[in-house]
Amino acid sequence: MLIDHWPLLGLRVRTDRLELRPPTDEELAELADLAARGVHEPGQRPFLTPWTDLPPAERARHLVQSHWHGRGSWTPQDWSLELAVFSAGRPVGVQTMRARDFATAREVRSGSWVGLDHQGRGVGREMRAAMLHLAFAGLGAAHATTASFLDNVAPLAISGRLGYRPDGITRDVLHGQVVVSQRLRLSREDWERTERPAVTVSGLEPCLPLFGLAAAE
Predict the structure, then answer these.
(1) Where is the N-acetyltransferase domain (predicted)?
(2) Angle at the Cα of 107 (from 106 to 108), degrees rounded to 5?
């Protein structure tokens, strides 16, 4: 079976109302349809990679290809875990966690998006909290980082409520203009002190070598 060769297919991260897991190809198609319908209001540009500037059909195709690329380029030294987020059995967004040399650095960085129809319900905070539990409690991370544009209020607020601290800025060029992002960092100690929803993880042990970690004996 495919899961014998790619155990990540069995990974599950759950809160009371959400489940995060790698999508099947059919679920990936549903996520592509969700992205095509929009992940932010017209005229906004909340992401440094301007994939949402594409027409709906190209936006959907980009999402599919990006997911396939993440699987195909995965190594224990450089990986990108893209988890589909499900609520009541339907996909509502994507939570990503990436790392390089994780076994040594013990640091992850994250990104995410939620379909426009599902925003404003606390989904973004809950799915990030689930990812952080996987990183800290499941994989033994020491730090988690993220970044958001200075005017992207919602993710900055989520990060603050989850215990992240400012970690400097970055300046990049997007569509010929300089954009400034706030970097944020969450330590294991701050994560342990922060109130968060209950999270359970299953199917992780067979995946540990893919993250560069030794499987539990």
Answers:
(1) 18-185
(2) 130
Task: Specify the pLDDT at position 40.
Answer: 83
The three-state secondary structure class of 135 is helix
Q: How far apart are CA 139 and CA 13, in angstroms?
A: 13
Taken in order of first residue, the domains within the chain and their CATH numbers are 2-143 (3.40.630.30)
Backbone φ, ψ for residue 60 (5° rounding): -65, -45
Looking at the chain, the number of H-run helices and the number of E-run strands are 7, 9
Contacts 24+ apart (CB under 8 A), 21-28: 21/83, 21/84, 21/86, 22/81, 22/82, 22/83, 22/84, 23/67, 23/84, 23/91, 27/84, 27/91, 28/63, 28/64, 28/67, 28/84
How far apart (Å, rounded) are the C-alpha atoms in residues 172 and 170? 7
The answer to whether 158 and 128 are in contact (CB under 8 A) is yes
DSSP, residue by residue, 34-100: HHHH-SS-TT----SS-GGGS-HHHHHHHHHHHHHHHHHT-BTTEEEEEEEEEETTEEEEEEEEEEE
Task: Give residue-wise pLDDT tens across range 152-197.
Answer: 899 999 999 999 999 999 999 988 999 999 999 999 999 999 999 9
Q: Which residues 6+ apart lie within 8 Å of 119 measured at CB?
A: 154
Mean pLDDT calculated for residue range 35-61: 86
What average pLDDT does the chain have? Answer: 94
Place of tokens 């987020």: 85
What pLDDT is stored for residue 217 in this prediction?
Answer: 44
